[in-house]
Structures are given as C-alpha cells and as structure tokens.
Amino acid sequence: MTEQTKQTTIETGELAREIVDLIADKKGENIVLLDLRGRTIIADYFVICSGGSERQLKAIVDGVTEELRKDYDIKPRSVEGNAETGWVLIDYVDIVVHAFAPEVRAYYNLEEFWTAQDANVLLKMQ
C-alpha cells in the first residue's frame, strides 16, 4: 500500500473537527464549531461556515461530502438546500453542517441562537 489510509472509524468530536479542516481547505470563512450535547436532540455538533460565492459554497459541500465518503465511508443522511439559495445543510446525524452565503447567515444568525441556549463554542476560525 503506497498511500496511507485514514482510520475507518472516528469519534464524533474528531469527525466534527475533521469537517472544520475540510471546510478550511476549501477556503470557507468564519467557521464555527458548536457543541450542542445536552442542549438539543437535533445533533451533538453544528459546524457553521460561510462561502463568498455560489461556486465556493458548492466546493465546500462537495469537498466535505466527498472526503468523508472517501476517507471514512461516511455518507450524509441528507443534504438540503443548494448553493443558489445561499444555505446548504448537510446532515450527518450527530453533526449538522450549515454552509451559508454571508447575508443568509446573518439573517438566520444560528450562532447567536444556540449560544443563547448555552451551546459551547469549541472553535472559531475567521
């Protein structure tokens, strides 16, 4: 085997951080990782990011979904929305990724809502 293969199982928190890294690799902006454990049954973690254009949002979504499938054989339960609407949600059951156009992100302001519910901000990348 000439190429080192990543592990096939990964803890949820580690996977959330891997998603953050994948988004950063695609030049996602204002990446936030929220720990929602014990605050909702929706998910354990939210990863929220912005993309400066439809093309970048699509690249972020494609990059995350393709790399997790390739490296860990993990497929999303669903992908809702699309780059043209300015909001794409990728549901990995315990982790939900929100990729926004900046103006749509400002409108919904998920970070403020969840931090008001005492969600912990684990990571913030500008």
Question: What is the element layout, followed by pairings?
Answer:
Elements: H1 12-25, E1 29-35, E2 45-50, H2 54-72, E3 78-82, E4 87-91, E5 95-100, H3 102-108, H4 110-116, E6 120-125
Parallel strand pairs: 2-5
Antiparallel strand pairs: 1-2, 1-6, 3-4, 4-5
User: Can you count the beta strands?
Assistant: 6
Distance between the termini: 37 Å
The spatial strand order of the largest sheet comes to 3-4-5-2-1-6
- State the secondary-structure class: alpha+beta
The rounded Rg comes to: 14 Å
Shape, please?
globular
Low-confidence stretches: 1-5
Number of separate helices = 4
The proportion of residues in beta strands is: 25-35%
Mean pLDDT: 93
Q: In percent, how helical is the residue content?
A: 25-40%
* Main beta sheet: 6 strands, mixed
| Order of secondary-structure elements | HEEHEEEHHE
Task: Describe the 3D structure.
It contains 4 helices and 6 strands, in the order H-E-E-H-E-E-E-H-H-E. It has 126 residues and is α+β, with helices and mostly antiparallel strands. The chain starts with 11 loop residues before the first helix and ends with a strand. It is globular and about 35 Å long.
How would you summarize this macromolecular structure in one to three sentences?
The chain contains four helices and six strands. The chain is α+β, with helices and mostly antiparallel strands and 126 residues long. The chain has a six-stranded mixed β-sheet with strand order 3-4-5-2-1-6, with helices on both faces.
